[in-house]
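Entry:
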Amino acid sequence: MAWLAAAALLAAREPALALGPGTLAAGYAAHLAALAVCRAAVHHGRRRAARNQPRSALVVGPAPAAQRLAALLHQHPEYGVRPVGVVGTPAQDIPQPAAADPGTARAPLPLLTTPEEIQRAVIQNCVRDAFLVAADDGPARGGTELAALLRRHGCATWLVGPAHGGGHVPMHRHLWGYELRALPAPGAPRRGRLPKRALDLALAVPLLVAAAPVLLLCAAAVRLSDGPGVLFRQERVGEDGQLFTLLKFRTLRPADANEAATRWNVADDERLGAVGSFLRRTSLDELPQLWNVLRGDMSLVGPRPERPYFVERFSRMHPGYAARHRMPAGLTGLAQVHGLRGDTSIEDRCRFDNHYIDHWSLWQDVCILLRTAATLIRPAGG
């Protein structure tokens, strides 16, 4: 098309220089030949780079099948993958790794069965990819949970299965005749953020207007009971680790900034007066966070935001804690409607938050909001 258009423009501008059919065909043939040579050179360079600098990978699935796939990858270094371990699926009894197929000349890879072993292998080998060995009807049992765990360690996950043309995700390319399909990361996809944000605005605006009299009464109560400084501002960690200023009604005055940033529980603090205790027990101290929702710092539903000091501390203690920041922080969340508020298990909260993200849907947000509204009358800690 480009050659024909150029020839037509040339003929219209300079009829004497019009290109004949033979010249056009020769030019187009030379064009195709040059293009093929250039693409072949690029392809050859990529293959050579893949051989020389393979990406470390883990193979997930039943040990015999995973070892066979690992041996296949060793036999074909042109794919640029270097298996460094086999991750056994936890939902089944995994036999010891069998010897590699004849001709591979490779010892069986180490079998990893615990999250600690997986984390150590990922860090020590700079693992960037995880290959899930699929059965005929989909991934191996337990593979979904392992894929989520590996994604939290920064690994891209791939499903490897028989090339029968089926599957629940589009085929990406083949791996020595096997389908190789990228598994999308779970959680709220980027295209789902627009309806989530629309829900936030559709509810936060009327809620803020309707709650205006309550906000004024709370502000007046705080002002009369404890003097100036009605709002309490504190730095919290939001989506992707971004910091933002969270707003609350002040329920007590911390001794200094360090106490505000590092003290965990204030429920039994003797400085907590009647007004502050009531606001915390009824969660009315959280109402100013509707403004954070309008600003886009937070969402109505999501993991509760925490202070940087505790984010760093909990991330070291609980491997999945940092993964909570894959979504915007929320005014309420799945953990909160299950009673995990105040001085409750961080590990349990982390598990609920990641489950919410991994199975996000707009309907789930609506259900959590309805459950939150139903539990507001129950006494609870902040």
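The radius of gyration is 29 Å.
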